[in-house]
Amino acid sequence: MEHSDAHHVPRQGNAPGAEARFAFDRMAVERFRRAFPRARWSDERKSWFVPGKTATRRIGRWLAQEAEMFALHGDSKGRDAFAFDPISSSYLEVSNDLRVRTPYSKTVLEELRAIPWASWDDELRAWRVPFRSFEELRRRWPNIEKAARHAEPEERKRRREAARDTEAYKASKMQNAERRRHRYPLPAEDLPPLARPVATAQYGIVVFNEVSGELAEPSLASYPNAMRKDIDYVWGRWRSARLAELVRTWPARNPPEANERLRGWWQPTLAELRVARRHARSLERKMLSRKLKTAG
């Protein structure tokens, strides 16, 4: 039964016994009193006290029987409700329970996990929902089916192909291409220190290896920090900062000012360093694991 428990409690005169609590139901109370005629109700504790050394075991057995009866009754009601108003969907299979199979979707997972008694069956590769949870499943089904259709491979492919014609996709493709070049526009008159980690607006904390004399294209839209027409920009070559370098770097006392962000680089703050260190530490662990697997 829902909201039920049984445990030992003290009693005047050291009489042994156990306390039982369960959700109020008139028929359940009658069954409880037939099973435990010596039980006494406590208004103060809002529970039943059953005397006896074996009270805990007997109450536990009775509660288990009640839970089983409640489940059978709920399943019977759920089957009737399903027969009267079924869910028709390619994602739902009806057996001795309800089985849900969909493409992977975070939304579907969240909805199914919120359904009482729903569970994942690894062997069936499906979510199993007992009929007693049918009403909750039906309430959530529009969201589940919508998310499942959205996650279908054909639908994902269609969205990817449609996105290729958008400006956002083209801009993202350009930015990815720039990142692979490991270059960054820097103001020629205000260059960062070489071989030291600095924070950037585009790539987080990096280390600049060199600054070439090659002028950066003034119309390069991938870099918002390099859009001023009155400043000459040159390309700086960068690499990701290593964990040891990040650990040695002292954080800035204050957040970067507007002019520092505008030029595109600044001394990293403690919060920025913590994020970069965590990422670098994770990356080093992955590289070490890969090396050990290769060596093994």
Automatic annotation (TrEMBL):
Tell me where on the tree of life, at the top rank, the source sits: Bacteria
Q: Which residues lie within the region annotated Disordered? A: 150-180
* Keywords of this entry: Plasmid
The residue ranges flagged as biased composition, category Basic and acidic residues, are: 150-170
Name by which UniProt lists this protein: Mll9619 protein
